[in-house]
Amino acid sequence: MATARQETILKAIAAVLEAIGFPRRWNTRQTGYCLLGLLDKTPRKGLLPGKTCLNDGARIHDILEFVRKTFRVKVAENTRETYRKTSLKQLFDHGLITRVQSSTNDPNTHYILNREFEKTLRTYLEAPLQRRTQILSSFKKPSVISEEIADKRGVRVTIGDNVIELSLGHHNQLVKQIIEIFASAFVDDPEVLYIGDTAHKLKYLGQTAEKLGIFLDEHAKAPDVILYSKSKNIVYIIEAVISSGVFSPDRVQDVERVLFGGQGKQFGVEYFTAFPDRATFRKFVEEIAWGTQV
Predict the structure, then answer these.
(1) Which residues pair with 235 in a beta bridge?
(2) What's the mean pLDDT in 159-164?
(3) CB-based burial label for 163 (10 Å; 0-12, 13-18, 19+)
(4) Whole-angstrom Cα distance, residue 268 to residue 232?
(5) Is the pLDDT of residue 83 over 60?
(6) Cα(56)–Cα(52) distance, integer angstroms
(7) How far apart (Å, rounded) are the C-alpha atoms in residues 289 and 249?
(8) b/e string for 47-85 if b means 16 or more Cβ within 10 A?
(9) Which tens digit of pLDDT belongs to each residue from 186-232?
(10) Tag placement on the chain: N or C end, fewer CB within 10 Å?
């Protein structure tokens, strides 16, 4: 049985979903349970390796356990498919969460909140009533990644208050999506350190790159995008792949040498290969280095 405070929070979540255009058919109490679970930062045992709380990433089983213990609701394990199809799939399809899985029946499939949406949701739930309308009006609904029509003058990429222009082409459209969609959804407090361009190579280099000891020049065989999360102290090195250039074991070594010169690093590093679709990913899956992400 939910407490009065829990009921208030569930109603607030439903109001947020309605305000951003989430379909009423799927805006249910069950969907509210899922979002509250994925917001939860309480340390827990029995999660996937490397996960300390549901906010780090939760399987459907973990969410069901959360509902049982938090709301004292008797949820049978065979309701997993109901939660998946009528709540989690709908949240995923609308860009509010992401799904991490290596295959269709991967037992470790888990879900993570879109970080931009999470930030808005937390701010809304903690804000006084008179500020809530303003918070929702400033929230930009996450986009489903799709092919955009390039401006004839080039592919325009927004970095904070600045707009830079990349050369035309599908590759740079993917670079744009990495920066404007992926970064805001999956990197905490993202800062763009570097952007390469298929035509001009070194197109953008932020000042923080040098402070971190990352040095690049126009002749370096650099990756396409480098991001940095100050709060996590992690550098994200990303290749945009349309026809070549995945993070193979050799490519990882090349980038380590180009960016860091074999020197010690005072930050974590994660390597990502970005693809525009699953079909392109399948062409290169055997070349991708273990320990990197897609």
Answers:
(1) 228, 269
(2) 76
(3) exposed
(4) 8
(5) yes
(6) 7
(7) 5
(8) beeebebbbbbbbbebbbbbbeebbeeebeeeebeebbe
(9) 888 899 998 887 666 667 788 888 888 887 766 567 888 999 998 99
(10) N
- One-letter amino acid at 267 equals F
- Residue 142 DSSP label: P
- Asked if residue 275 lies in contact with residue 281, where contact means CB atoms within 8 angstroms, the answer is yes
Contact criterion met (CB below 8 Å) for 222 and 259: yes
**CA 6/CA 12 separation, integer angstroms:** 10
Structure-block tokens of residue 251: 């490519």
Separation of alpha carbons 244 and 241, rounded Å: 6
- Amino acid type, 192: V
Secondary structure letter of residue 58 according to DSSP: B
- What is the rounded average pLDDT of the residues 156-176? 81
Strand-pairing partners, residue 158, are 163
Q: Which of 224, 245, 237, 223 is nearest to 268 (CA)?
A: 237
* Residue 275 vs residues 57, 81, 178, 283: alpha-carbon distances, Å: 22, 29, 10, 10
Amino acid letter, 245: G
Q: CA-based diameter of the chain, in Å? A: 63
Amino acid, single-letter form, for residue 26: W
